[in-house]
Amino acid sequence: MRGYDRLFIGGNWERSTGTDVLDVHSPHSTELVGRTPAATTADVDRAVAAARDAFDTGPWPRLAPGERIALLRRFAELYVARAPEFAELITAEMGSPIGFSQTGQTLAPWLLLTTLADLAETYPWEAERTGVLGDPITVRREPVGVVGAIVPWNVPQAAIMSKLAPALLAGCTVVVKPAPETALDALALAEVIAEVGFPAGVVSVLPAGREIGEHLVTHPGIDKIAFTGSTAAGRRIAALCGERLRRVTLELGGKSAAIILDDADLAATVDGLKMASFMNNGQACVAQTRILASRARYTEVVDALADLVATLRVGDPADPATDIGPLVAARQQERVEHYITLGQAEGARVVAGGNGRPPGQPVGWYVRPTVFADASNDMRIAREEIFGPVLTVIPYADEAQAVELANDSEYGLAGSVWTADAERGLDVARRVRTGTFAVNRYTTDFAAPFGGYKASGIGREHGPEGFDAYVELKSIAGPAT
């Protein structure tokens, strides 16, 4: 049992103005693992006021970039010392297998901090150029202002760091609104932030529900919103920001395709899809959940995926041997079970998994990893984000149709192609309309931009391009000659 009785507001630990609490339950045992205060609209008002004052009159946005970089490097040092603790906490909160928590949940945030601090060293915060008439022009990248960062529960600290690190390096002040399911690790992260030595008002962390998030989005003291979450919520946030001409970046859902070409090494492909498709119990926006296989090898691919699922160990996420843990909440378990029922009603065939509890798991929010065959790309299980360990295998006639099927989606976040011919794979990659793509694997690199086409979002995170969302461009002409 881990508890907090205060929120992190403007660099200080403050009591909430309300009395509501957030109870965090283990997805494995359903038992209570911790409790935090639930932030109120008045708490948001206090945090935004502190951030506004810190930005408008405080030292943070006026420091030289090198001074901010030095503090972010200290942040990284303090963070990595507590990474093992954070991994265990995130596993307890939301069911991520401990092996993934030690990499995707905690190594990734540390890499984000260190990589972005390195990139900030060479980012063109201020650059000189010559105008068309020969006059000098200075182009400055200045911090956008007070940032509201709203993050989900599936990769909570990585999602926070994707926004917090570039915003701070740019000189912004930040109010973070974590999801209620992962309130504990958010406030544990705030303990590290408190040690770093940021000026007063620069960072606040306020766990709360959706209504408080909307108050943050519409708050008049906010200059920019950075959001990761569902496409439906992203549309709502985009509309609210549009009414206010407020800067916004959105990292949203996906329904990514893995294209298996006929020359692919199937054993290596299936081994790669174990992570690409099932990472974090399938609760990943980049998960490769549409598997596109040629008709010539369709049965072979389906059988190989069914065999893979049979080997996956489902159970206690704290056990290092576990491949698939529980889903984050009962509502998520019900959602995934609904889609499994729906897929069968649509005419797809379950070749592995299906509804019903995994053996040996009488409690907890578990579902059985599932593979559908005989599916078409117009089925809802092929078009809608399920956010669980469910794969849909879709046949294609030739490479051109495989690319067409991959692009036939409202989403465009991730994808992969599996082939023995690297150049052929790169050619396919260039034709698929998606923000990230990989050949014979799926991974992202924090030195490169991350984000989506179409309904998968607006804007990019990571890489030097990730700073662009947190700056305004100013052109200064002169002095006249």
Question: Could you characterize the architecture of this molecule?
Answer:
The chain has 481 residues and is of the alpha/beta class. The protein has 2 domains: 2-252 and 456-477, 3-Layer(aba) Sandwich (Aldehyde Dehydrogenase, Chain A, domain 1), CATH 3.40.605.10; 256-445, Aldehyde Dehydrogenase, Chain A, domain 2, CATH 3.40.309. The chain is built from 14 helices and 23 strands. The strands form 6 sheets. The chain has a 7-stranded mixed sheet with strand order 15-16-17-14-13-19-20, sandwiched between helices. It has a 6-stranded mixed sheet with strand order 10-9-8-11-12-22, with helices on both faces. Strands 1-5-4 form a 3-stranded mixed sheet, with helices on one face. Helix 2 (65-94) packs antiparallel against helix 3, helix 2 packs antiparallel against helix 4 and helix 2 (65-94) packs antiparallel against helix 5. The N and C termini lie far apart (69 Å). The relative contact order is 0.14.
Sum up the structure in keywords:
Aldehyde Dehydrogenase, Chain A, domain 1; 14 helices; Aldehyde Dehydrogenase, Chain A, domain 2; aldehyde dehydrogenase (NAD(+)); 39% helix; 6-stranded mixed β-sheet; 7-stranded mixed β-sheet; 2 domains; 23 strands
According to DSSP, the number of beta strands is 23
Query: In what range is the share of β-strand residues?
Result: 15-25%
Q: Distance between the terminal alpha carbons, to the nearest Å?
A: 69 Å
Structural class: alpha/beta
Would you identify the CATH architecture of the largest domain?
3-Layer(aba) Sandwich
- Overall shape: globular
CATH top level label of the largest domain = Alpha Beta
At the fourth level of CATH, the homologous superfamily of the largest domain is Aldehyde Dehydrogenase, Chain A, domain 1
Contiguous runs where pLDDT drops below 50 for at least 5 residues: none
Count of distinct structural domains: 2
Task: Tell me the helix content.
Answer: 25-40%
